[in-house]
Write a structure and sequence with these properties.
The chain has 261 residues and is α/β, with parallel strands linked by helices. Helices cover 39% and strands 18% of the residues. The chain has a single domain, classed as P-loop containing nucleotide triphosphate hydrolases (Rossmann fold). The chain has eleven helices and eight strands. Helix 1 packs across helix 10. The longest helix has 16 residues.
């Protein structure tokens, strides 16, 4: 299963990606985290995993990547980066690190002033995810860039599920509903994880979203906050995260959506 985790900037999607990855690995799932956010610098630290070589860098930077994406677009060319069928086991070795049942693949990062937009990074993500075939016990979690641009690049089209992280913010609520509408256009269902909530804000947020799509409501956790603040590995367990994992492992894409795809 491929799961896109999205939301507005600062909503906590990277934190939730890490907590979900660790919880899923803890129940025996093989997890691949794809860091598709060009501006997130610390996902590997929160996972407690050494950062691998960034995939765009390994492909020769923007010049080399542009050529490889062009070759990959005809679906005939195959090399160490874009095989016709990609699996957890044949991802480019230098671009993957692993610890505690979790693999990490970092797509690309903006590093320098004036180097250009993140469209090429989106192109790599789309090429990888469209080829990646996971087994029944394998779950891919994609930490998307903030906002909705990944939908415009059709990266989500290869996903089975979109989880939108919503924090107590009017813009976040509006963006979550827009994400649902756009994802449905690609034949992908969207569900919500409320983050940083207490009883008062949860009621307000639930009344402004389709409540049947809310799979978890995560309260503020001081231990997680401090670990994130200091760049430590996130280790706290939470029953709300376990509930989200139960939803994920039992989720089956509706037949109508399979036919639409």
């Amino acid at each position: 299963m491929k799961i896109m985790i999205c939301g507005k900037g600062g909503c906590g999607k990277s934190t939730l990606t890490v907590l979900l990855a660790r919880a899923l690995a803890g129940i025996g799932k093989k997890v691949l985290v794809v860091d598709a956010d060009e501006s997130n610098l610390c996902l590997h630290r929160l996972l407690g995993i050494h950062q691998p070589e960034i995939m765009m860098d390994a492909m020769g930077g923007r010049i080399g990547t542009r050529e490889k994406l062009k070759q990959a677009s005809d679906h005939q060319h195959e090399d160490d980066f874009f095989k016709q069928v990609m699996t957890f086991d044949n991802l480019p070795a230098e671009c993957v690190t692993e610890a505690d049942g979790i693999k990490l693949l970092v797509v690309g990062k903006i590093k320098e002033f004036g180097e250009g937009c993140a469209c090429m990074i989106g192109g790599i993500s789309k090429a990888v995810l469209s080829r990646l075939q996971e087994k029944e016990n394998e779950i891919v979690l994609i930490d998307a860039e903030a906002g909705l641009e990944h939908f415009g690049r059709q990266i989500d089209k290869s996903c089975d599920l979109v989880l939108c992280v919503v924090d107590p913010n009017y813009e976040s609520i509006q963006m979550a509903d827009r994400a649902r509408q756009i994802a449905e256009g690609a034949g992908v269902q969207t569900y919500f994880i409320l983050n940083k909530v207490d009883d008062n804000v949860r009621e307000i947020m639930t009344s402004n979203l389709e409540s049947q799509r809310i799979i978890a409501a995560i309260p503020h956790n001081e231990e997680i906050f401090l670990q994130s603040l200091t760049g430590q590995t996130l280790t706290a367990g939470m029953p709300q995260i376990e509930a989200a994992c139960t939803f994920i492992t039992s989720y089956r894409k509706p037949l109508s959506l399979n036919m639409k795809m």
